Structures are given as structure tokens and as C-alpha cells.
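A further point concerns the way the authors explain their paired sequence and structure data. The central task, working out the C-alpha cells from the amino acid sequence alone, is never made concrete. I therefore recommend that a typical entry be quoted early in the introduction. An entry of this sort, consisting of the sequence and the corresponding C-alpha cells, reads as follows:
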Amino acid sequence: MCQSNWQCILCMHLCLHPLSLYLSPDNAYDPDVNAKQFWIDKTQIKEQDCLIFMDNGNGLDYERMHKMLSFGYSDKRVINGKHPIGLYGNGFKSGSMRLGKDAIVFSKSQDGDTMQVGMLSQSYLAQIKADEIIVPIISFQCLPHSQYILL
């Protein structure tokens, strides 16, 4: 089992648009997320400004990560009278791409058995000269003693 409970979104090649800052906290607010805390930090990685958004919510398994990174998909619903923000499945994608050219999402599933890494990257798509949007997602199984197996 993985020790920490985290979900982290890392945006690189920072070009900040103030309205975009609302979208990651909005996703942490949604009723099915159960985040009690939300952190925003700025750092540099290889001389690139990066924003880090992290919450202690439920996290995402592979299926939910795939849905979050897919365009135009949303299964949000009211839970215990708490209404979700956003209904069309475009908020994370449009918000993160207004903040920067690349977003890397790290998440641990709610049961703690798997971890996912998803990449929404304009830089990658330009480099491979893609004519369609490709969003790689890698899954790992968490084992005792901080060991991981690529799934």
C-alpha cells in the first residue's frame, strides 16, 4: 500500500492567465473528491517555472484519470446536496492549457492500490508532430515497502 494520500497537478512552461487558477481548486471542491486541504506552490524544474496544485482528496484510479483527461466527458452529479462545478468535461483541459503548455497529473487511487501518471502536453504533441490528441497515462501497482510495478 502507498503511504501518502496525494493528487498533484504540475503545469510547466508557465504562461499565467488569472481565470485559469480557479479550475484546479474547483475540481478539488467537487463533492466526490472529498478534499479537505488544497495547496498551490510555485517552483522551478530545469529552469522552467512550474505551478503545483495538490489536494488530499480521494485521488483517481485509471478509469477516472482517463475520463478527466478526455475531452467533453463529465459524469459529475449532485452528492448530499453539494453541486459539482462544471458539467461539460472541458474545465481541467482548457484551464491547464491556459496556464502552460504541459500538465502532468500524479494521483493515487482511493483504495491506495494503484498510482496513475497522466500527461496532457502540447510540447509532446508538437515534438511528435501529432495530428490528433494523444494523452498518455501510466499506471503503477503499489506494493509493500514503497515498491511499484508498472501495469
Q: What stands out?
A: The longest strand covers residues 38-45. The beta strands are 7-12, 38-45, 48-55, 102-108, 114-121, 137-143, 147-150. DSSP finds four helices and seven strands in the chain. The chain has one domain: 7-150.
